[in-house]
Amino acid sequence: MDKSTFQAYEDEIQALEEEIRQLTEKYEDIRQESTFFSNEEILKSIKSLQRETQGETKGHESLSDLKAELESLESDLSFLTAFTGFHFTSHSKKTVEKTSNGTVQKHRLSGKCHSLSFQLEFQLLEMQNNEKVSAVISDLSIIMESREDSNVSKFVSSTEERGDLLTFFRSLSTYAEWYEHRRCTFLHFK
Predict the structure, then answer these.
(1) Three-state DSSP class for 87?
(2) Measured between alpha carbons, how far is 64 from 53 in angstroms, rounded to an integer?
(3) In whole angstroms, what is the distance from residue 137 CA to residue 114 CA?
C-alpha cells in the first residue's frame, strides 16, 4: 500500500472519530436538556400511554395511579401559578463542564409573571464537599420588558451584577402584581 492511500484511510478514520465525538456530545446535550411541558403535551403523553397499555389489566391499575398523580401535580402547579403569578414557558440546561468536585451548567429560563414576560440565562456551579452541596450563580443575564420604566432597568442591572435570583423573583412578583393593578385601574378610567 502506498503512502497516499494509507494517508487517505487515516484521514477518513480521523473524520469518522470526530463525527462520533460530535454526535456523542450532541446526544449528551439532548439527554440532559430538560423542558417544562404544556398541559397539551402532557395530555398527548397520557393518551399515548393509554394506547400503549390498552388490553393489559395491570397497565390499567398503574394507569389510574398515574392519572391520579398527574391530576395532583397539575392542581399543585395551578395553585403555585395562581399564588406566585409565575408561569414558566420553557427551561433548558446544558452541562458545560464536569469535574470530580463540581459541575457547571448553563440554564435558560423564560416565562411570565402576571403580564410581564422575562428570560433568564445563567451558569450554575454546583460543588460537593463532604456530603454538602453548594451552588453559585454566575453570568446572569436578564431580558425583560421594562415598559420604559427606568427603575426596572436599574433593578435588572443590579440583580445581574449580584447574581441574586431569589431577590429577582420576589421583587418581580410584587412589581408585576402591582403593575397589573395599575394597568387595570388606568383602563377603568379611560
Answers:
(1) strand
(2) 11
(3) 25
Beta carbons of 125 and 135 less than 8 angstroms apart: yes
Do 115 and 69 lie in one domain? The reply is no
Q: How far apart are CA 44 and CA 20, in angstroms?
A: 33
Spell out the residues 6+ positions from residue 110 whose beta carbon is closer than 8 angstroms to its own: 88, 89, 90, 91, 117, 118, 119, 120
* Amino acid symbol at 9: Y
Total residue count of the chain as it appears in this document: 190
Q: pTM higher than 0.70 for the full model? A: no
Whether residue 29 is found in the same domain as residue 95? no
Task: Report in angstroms the alpha-carbon separations of 157 from 138, 141, 142, 162.
Answer: 14, 9, 8, 9
Overall domain count for the chain = 2
The model's pLDDT over 87-134, given as tens digits with 9 standing for 90+, comes to: 888 888 888 888 877 888 999 999 988 888 889 999 988 888 777 888
Handedness of CA 45, 48, 50, 52 (dihedral sign): negative
